[in-house]
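Folds abound. A case:
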Amino acid sequence: MTVSAVSPSAVDGARAAEAAQPARGEARYEQLVDRFVAPAATQEQRDQAYDLVAGVEADGQVTDEALAQQGAQAIADNRTIPVQVAQVAPLVAPGTALGPFESADAAAIEMMNYSNPLSIEANLENGGLVFSNADGQFFVSTPMQGTLAGFDPSQVPQPDGMTLEACYHGHADYSKADGTRTDKAGDEFNSDHFSEQDKRVADGGYWGPVIYVSTPSGDFRKYDSATREDTVIQQGTRDQAAEPAPSRPPGIMIPV
């Protein structure tokens, strides 16, 4: 016969602590956590996301559609849980800041992977802003729509307590001046490159010192006003033909 070295009070305390932990395991909530939360998230972050989703039904059950939409918004608004942008962005309000990311480039690339196909499909520019917080983490807003020839970043909400770092936008599809779709050779906007207006926006620091663009070719470009370097940060796969000559007007709008 053995005697436990653990006192009854310690056992009772452990049981009480276990009981205080929220019960998790509801399949509907788990499925949304798997869908919304980035694979790199910690278990603690996943548990937090689960609790946020569960909280949507604190006052009663809602439809699966409402649970997904409100759960995605709750996770996004929390801003401590890394998300799968392509899953969360369609369900939250346009201009919602998603993150955290380790760098501005990572944030912009992840969002442009989502926003560029939308820009091409609609044949309209779209875009948003990149922010940082006091902890050195980066966030990027979900895309807001522009026109065939430009995007206005002033429509994007800027979260309190965050620093504006950059702007990103999509250059729609290859088009004639009247908006008729064409191929790369017939494009009248030089859509695979920054416009001079785009670069002036970054040089002036209107929406941060850096600007990103996603293009019909699938290339993602970055222009840094500090170095005046224009670089491809992600290579596209769409067939690339001859370079068109005209410069794309007007691009990102400068506030007046």
